[in-house]
Design a protein that fits this description.
alpha+beta, four-stranded mixed β-sheet, 9 helices, 51% helix
Length: 214
């Protein structure tokens, strides 16, 4: 089976690459600029939104990082994406994370990181304040859950951990106060110590992110 993973350094493509590296997936990594006029039609043919990551296997395009993680885990015969009795518990944390904790991280990162990298305008302090308020509310719940646990599931590392942590890899610019939440800080340190997460682009020809403009 031939497979290509189209990616960039942005949060969701980075997540997909980290999953593929963690699983040792047999894929070709191809850096993509899907909104460049030269490539826009190519990527809209693969994903109507044009967004990446996109996994193409034998002519079939699969988009969205969570779906890609599920497929790669199945292909690898791995329980990284739980398929048994723990699957509902894993999906609960993926769902809650994307709707609450990850969403709050995204709001703050968008203002302090994405907008400043790509010239989308000045930081909106009201958006940052709301994002931080939501972060604190949800971080408190996550921190409480992690007491006595190394990872979100009692059985160990799963894709839910990578999904929950997806924006924390960019905390050098988002500056979310994870140090205020010792269980989260310890949990994320365990994830960040894994080579596939620490540097998923090792050995790949991947341009750096644009610098922060302010």
């Amino acid at each position: 089976m031939t497979a290509t993973l189209y990616y960039s350094r942005n949060p969701n493509p980075r997540l997909a690459v980290a999953v593929a590296r963690h699983l040792g997936s047999d894929v070709t990594f191809e850096f993509a600029m899907p909104f460049h006029p030269k490539f826009r039609e190519k990527f809209r043919a693969l994903n109507p939104s044009g967004r990446i990551p996109i996994l193409v296997q034998d002519g079939h395009a699969l988009w969205e990082a969570d779906a890609i993680a599920c497929r790669l885990s199945m292909d690898a015969g791995s329980d990284f994406w739980r398929m048994g009795a723990e699957m509902p518990e894993m999906i609960r944390w993926i769902s809650w994370g994307k709707a609450h904790f990850v969403q709050a991280c995204d709001v703050v990162h968008f203002e302090r990181g994405t907008k400043q990298r790509y010239g989308f305008g000045p930081i909106d302090p009201l958006a940052v304040a709301q994002g931080l308020a939501d972060f604190h509310e949800n971080a408190a719940q996550l921190d409480a859950h992690l007491v006595g646990r190394d990872y979100l599931l009692d059985s160990g590392l799963s894709y839910a951990d990578f999904r929950m942590a997806s924006y924390l890899a960019f905390n050098d610019v988002a500056a979310l106060p994870i140090a205020n939440y010792p269980q989260i800080a310890a949990w994320y340190a365990r994830i960040a110590a894994r080579p596939a997460w620490a540097d998923p682009f090792a050995g790949l020809d991947t341009p750096p992110l644009p610098p922060i403009s302010c």
